[in-house]
Amino acid sequence: MFKKSLKISLIVIVLFSLTFTIACSNTKNSDTNHKVRLFEVTHSIFYTPLYVAIEKGFFKDQGLDVELTNANGGDKTMTALVSGSADVILVGTETTIYVYSQNPKDPAINFAQLTQTDGSFLVSREPIKNFTWDMLKGKTLLGQRKGGMPEMVSEYVQHLNGVEPKVDNEIIQNIDYANLGSAFVSGTGDFVQLFEPIASKIELEGKGHVVASFGHGSGKLPYTVFITKQSLIDKNPEIVQKFANAIYMAQQWVNEASLEEIADVITPQFQDFNRDVMLKVLDRYRSQGSWATDPIVDEEEYRNLEKVMEYAGELKEKIPYEAIVNTEFAKKAMEQ
């Protein structure tokens, strides 16, 4: 009887162990199968911490399979989220303000910040040792798209420095973003507002000179942020949390790594890049503190964004910070 009871007990233990193992295995497989469709506004070294999270495997460590798509524009990026083509998008917070003002049933929510300054630079034809913004008076500037953050920041920075854009100077805005650099090199305009790596490439070719940073001039902003729908937060908060965890891990790594180490990690994302240009761009962004060191979308930065949008005439109504910003996931990521 004892032997029979012992045998039954051992069978039960074995079955329990197998069940537990299978359950754990299924949980693990479930975690690794959490696919996240991420659309970015453009593919740029400006978003280095994101690519570090991908290449260092921080998303995979969190059980996320991130599929990255370049949407090539802010409008297209938000459209991907609203239409359901994207689960998470990387774009400026201003897009969530525009969407919320239309009273959506499922608002777009900012949950993790990636960059905290503008990422564009002012490029002149000739080197200027002691540039001041009033040098834009009476000149022609190749600008960015109306209503977009780069153009709003440009006009705001000029205004703060005593230059009234489009009054004291001419701003050309009918040239496509991808063609701004070539248009400038071909002879259009006295100055141009460019993102990296185009600014550094033109500089290394001796066809232009970076004389000022719009990021320095405007102060900190929730410039590019990870955004998702409220419905995803309600249904799958664990996915949003894991995403925020991976981003914070990348931010910490980038903050401590050397420029050479960072370049090594993100090279697979930019295989055609000249190494010297990449290092120069990385140094430029790190030096001006463009990368947020934590994923919290700060309220003070949000208020600064409102000022930029107000001056540009693009803020139709002020949207409460709490209505479109959720800091819960960012804070938990930092606690962990």
TrEMBL record:
Pfam families, A to Z: NMT1 (PF09084)
The entry's keywords: Signal
Localization: Periplasm
InterPro entries membership: SsuA/THI5
Range of residues in the leader sequence: 1-25
Keyword Signal: yes
SsuA/THI5-like domain mapped to chain residues: 48-254
Top-level taxonomic group: Bacteria
Matches recorded under PANTHER family: ALIPHATIC SULFONATES-BINDING PROTEIN-RELATED (PTHR30024), TAURINE-BINDING PERIPLASMIC PROTEIN (PTHR30024:SF47)
Name used for this protein in its record: SsuA/THI5-like domain-containing protein
